[in-house]
Amino acid sequence: MRTIDLSPLYRSFIGFDRLASMIDAASQNGNQATYPPYNIELLGEDKYRISMAVAGFGKEDVTIEVLENALTVTGKKEAEETTDSEQQRQFLHKGISERSFERKFHLGDHVKVTAANLEHGLLNIDLEREIPEEKKPRQIEIGSALLESKQ
């Protein structure tokens, strides 16, 4: 495996001490399972949607949890009692998976989950970046009152 020297970045990026750990975590996500398939869409300037194909799962089978900057979607099928007719079923091809899953997404700063809907086998999770006013850029006038009061 290659190692990447990130020390030149630290000279110009102040406060990004966790950058190396984030890159390392992203490189380890290659081992993550590919089920269920999903899309990430950009709906607007600061609006996103994650769409997951969860055929066979109902609202009661799927949980969505946000903890700090991590979004976790978990699907668990409850063990159903089989009837005599279901025991007689034989599949020639079984392409619809009914296995449990857990999918994690790392969210950026100030990204909030605004809605979640399950319709036609697709779980849609809407996200929005809400930057607080104190974090938005502001103009600083040269020769402000603070400097004039010291004279």
Automatic annotation (TrEMBL):
<keyword id="KW-0346">Stress response</keyword>
<feature type="domain" description="SHSP">
    <location>
        <begin position="29"/>
        <end position="145"/>
    </location>
</feature>
<protein>
    <submittedName>
        <fullName>Molecular chaperone</fullName>
    </submittedName>
</protein>
<comment type="similarity">
    <text>Belongs to the small heat shock protein (HSP20) family.</text>
</comment>
<dbReference type="Pfam" id="PF00011">
    <property type="entry name" value="HSP20"/>
</dbReference>
<dbReference type="InterPro" id="IPR037913">
    <property type="entry name" value="ACD_IbpA/B"/>
</dbReference>
<dbReference type="InterPro" id="IPR008978">
    <property type="entry name" value="HSP20-like_chaperone"/>
</dbReference>
<dbReference type="InterPro" id="IPR002068">
    <property type="entry name" value="A-crystallin/Hsp20_dom"/>
</dbReference>
